[in-house]
Amino acid sequence: MAPKFDKEYVLKTVEERGIRFIRFWFTDVLGQLKSFAIADTELELAFEEGMGFDGSSIDGFTRIQESDMIAFPDPSTFKILPWRPTEGGVASMFCEIMKPDGTPFEGDPRYALKRNLKKAADMGFTMYVGPELEFFYFADENGTEILDRGGYFDLTPLDVASDLRRETVLTLEKLGIAVEYSHHEVAPSQHEIDLRYAEASEMADIVMTYRLAVKEIAYKSGVYATFMPKPIAGENGSGMHVHQSLFNKDGNAFFDANDPDGYNLSAVGKSYIAGLLKYAPEFCAVTNQFINSYKRLVPGYEAPVYVSWARRNRSALVRVPMYKPGKENATRIELRSPDPSANPYLAFAVMLGAGLKGIEEGLELRPEASNNIFDMTDAELAAAGITTLPGSLDEAIKLFENSEVMKEILGDHIHKFFVENKKAEVNEFRLAVTEWELDRYLSIL
């Protein structure tokens, strides 16, 4: 776990290390990192009074007549940015966004996650997550020229991509972010760096920092890194499998050695999974929030689109990885549908909210999927009661819009903006004339 800093530590470190600029970070509703910098001389006052800014220019924040927002830095998230010069250095902190009256702003994604974590805490649970984020390296941002032709776990000859991944891991370690694995992924020029699990609010901050670090190191080397879900047609897309567990005062709340079904899952764990499966179609618009996300969520290419669960079967939407004997605390579930373009605050919030609903409703877990679901016919899927995730953003946003559970989890403000924004994206795509259409129709019609 990353060390927890307080205000006094931050002020002392800024003075001793000669930090001249402190970037205040937060995200808009879509998960784009926003930032403004203050001088070191303003930091003490910022801790006391916050720093005001115009929220009307931030996607999903507020109307122009209610635009005043205040950013309060969270000292526990303090980091010195290793890609900036050491002389006159730059640090960063994530912020809590408040309204002028001192109350939390309902449109702040970080607050939305913390509200759901508070609900979990009131039920006796703490959520831990460990995401696996995949990404591509390309020659530049204007196309998809790959840097290597490696495959899954390939040890490619020393090249730009291998060095980039190594330097990125070292940079993350300098930021205090623990890395478990790094390796080449299935598609050419596709890579993955897995983060060691952490409490969910801390991990959401880490994911935002991770994505920036990957891009900064790539930029420094003259190439481009992207978390676009499906940049290359015919190749695997990039996912963000999210391992998650709940802990209570007795330890891992998902583990039960006396499980009568032989899964070693507690009643809490089973209901949590059942909640994920029930509400996954409704939260899919959040975990897979762009038009391009649904180019990845198709049968094949290892993308899980069938609403089912299993232990060893990686074609299922939810997987329960096998733990090592004596490592019962490692019992967790893995949701395989999210992609790395999602806003991690909202993504973790809807996963947790869905799982807690499953617990509250006492949902029963249907039997695990034992066959390769990708090989099952439509009739076999129907007989097994296996449905699919939405096949497009249009379909996903309709389910999300009509979901009272999603409105409850995210709040009216975020829910309303998200629906409006995604409907606009769908409509813009409908008006676009794509290269596929030109290639297919122009010469014959």
Mind explaining what this structure looks like?
With 445 residues, this protein is α+β, with helices and mostly antiparallel strands. It has 13 helices and 18 strands. The strands form three sheets. Strands 7, 8, 9, 10, 11, 12, 13, 15, 16 and 17 form a ten-stranded mixed beta sheet that branches. Strands 1, 2, 3, 4, 5 and 6 form a six-stranded mixed beta sheet that branches. The chain is globular.
Cα-based radius of gyration, to the nearest Å: 22 Å
Tertiary shape: globular
What is the number of E strands?
18
Termini Cα gap: 61 Å
- Which percent range fits the helix content? 25-40%
Strand fraction band? Answer: 15-25%
Strand count, sense and barrel status of the largest sheet are: 10 strands, mixed
Mean pLDDT figure? 89
Number of helices: 13
How would you classify the helix and strand content by structural class? alpha+beta
- As residue ranges, the low-confidence spans are none
Tell me the layout of helices and strands.
Elements: H1 7-16, E1 19-27, E2 33-39, H2 43-49, E3 51-54, E4 68-73, E5 79-80, E6 89-98, H3 109-122, E7 126-138, H4 160-174, E8 179-184, E9 190-195, E10 198-199, H5 200-220, E11 224-226, E12 240-248, E13 251-252, H6 267-287, H7 293-296, E14 306-307, E15 309-310, E16 318-319, E17 333-335, H8 344-360, H9 378-383, E18 387-388, H10 393-401, H11 404-410, H12 412-431, H13 435-441
Parallel strand pairs: 1-6, 15-16
Antiparallel strand pairs: 1-2, 3-4, 4-6, 5-6, 7-9, 7-10, 7-11, 7-12, 8-9, 12-13, 12-17, 14-18, 16-17
